[in-house]
Structure formats: C-alpha cells, structure tokens
Amino acid sequence: MRFIKLQGAGNDFIVVDARGSDRGWTSLAAAICDRHFGVGADGLLTVNDSEVAGLRMGLFNADGSEAELSGNGMRCFVKYAVERGLIDVVDDSVSVETLAGIITSRVMMEDGKVRGAQVSMGEPRFAPKDIPVAVEAQPPLTDVQIEVDGRSFAVTCLSLGNPHAVHLTDTAVAGFPLDTMGPLVERHALFPKRTNFSVAHVRSRGEIESRTWERGAGPTLACGSGSSAVMVAARLAGLVDDEVAIHVPGGVLELVWDGRGEILLTGPAEEVFEGDWPDA
Q1: pLDDT per residue over 30-45, tens digit each?
Q2: Which CATH superfamily is 128-261 part of?
Q3: Full-prediction pTM beyond 0.70?
Q4: Using CA of residue 60, residue 64, residue 67, residue 70, what is the dihedral sign?
C-alpha cells in the first residue's frame, strides 16, 4: 500500500488513497502510526469518494480511534489531493466531507505546489449536549470546574465537531504538566466521548502560546481544532482581538474569529516522504 507522510506545523499524518479499498483502518492506523514499529504519525488520513463534496476525508488517531475533524490534517489532505489532481479547485477553494460536516479550504499555491491552506473550521458549538459535557449550565461554558490528580482548575468547553476543553493560564504553558494532566482530562467523567485538552497563555491581544493533548493521540506539536478552541476561549474571555497568532511547539497558526460565525485557520502543509506499507 502506497502512503505519503505530510505535516502541518509538526502535526504529522500518513495519507493513503482508500478509494475502492476496504480494509480495517482502525487496526492499520494503530500499526502504521506507531513511532517505533511503524512509520510514525499523529494520525492516518484516508482519501475517499464523496457524493456531497470533492472528496471525503477519513481521520483515525494514532490509537486507532476515529475522529471528526483536524485542521492541520485537513491542510495535509488538501495538499495531497490537489497536487495529485484528485479534487477540483474552484475559485481557489476545495470542499471536503468529514464526520464534522463539509469543510471548505482556500488553497495557497506557490510554483504549482500547495504551501498551505486557510481552513473554515465551522462555527463553535457551546450547548452541553453538543460538546458533549456532563454539566447543567447555560452556554457558553467558560468556567467549568474540573478536578484531576488533586488539582482543580477551570476550563472552557466547546465543540468544533469534536470536543474541546481549554484552560487559560497566567503563566507560560511550558511549565504546565500536560503529559500527566492531559490523559486524565481526556478521560474525565465529565466528557462521555472523551475530549481534547489545551492549555493556553495569552501573551497579548494578538498572540497566544498553547499546547494540546489530543484525544487518541496524546501531546502533539500542533492541533488545528485545539488552536481554534483556544482562540474561542480567549475571545470569549475578552483577552484577544479578532485575529491572533497562536504559537504551538511546531510553529505558528493564524486564527480569525470575530465572536460569531465560522473560525478561519491558516497554516502550512509540507510533504515529508513517501513509501510502501506491506499488506501482510
């Protein structure tokens, strides 16, 4: 099976053309994403035919679980599909079906190559049942108290087609114990479908630093939907303006959100290498 490895701000994915193929993607994702015995990646993206968009993107986390949406993964998917002529570009944009709905991306071309994309991440949803989160409160949920490992703190909860919890801290995120707290928050009883967990520090009204523990993948160098959730949390708190640069371990992502409507995420996409994965 031919595969291509791509990355967006260090969030890396393996992409395979799954059109006409029927195989166990869950088990394959866990095997091929393993960084010791496989190729190594945060997730597996499958290219599928769609009846409602240019293509359909399947997304499987490194643990084999299926996810709804990835902003960084979408940019990698778009680069793969556009450069191989698998999808039509109309007015510099493409549409891709996901479990979170149809996602539109504006393609950024340079010398015939896709260098990045601006992805419409859709509108954030705040109702507890839509996230989902097991609390009874009126949205938006900007002060949900959570206790893990004897430590209590507040998170903002929202959905971008996938669940997110964001903790805004007054100190640099490098000192936050994400490796120990992340898995505990991900599987906390408050989140019946688990959750992505981001910790963020607002540097100024136009800059944020953030780290994310991704549901099913662990700590990643970047998370597009996580950064979008961070933007929303900071904007709801009145700490940032409509446009921010979010500094993540793998680089910088640009976010735009005016407090209503869709969130726009812009970042790079680069091909790393390609190879063949044995079928047996």
Answers
A1: 999 999 999 999 999 9
A2: Diaminopimelate Epimerase; Chain A, domain 1 (3.10.310.10)
A3: yes
A4: negative
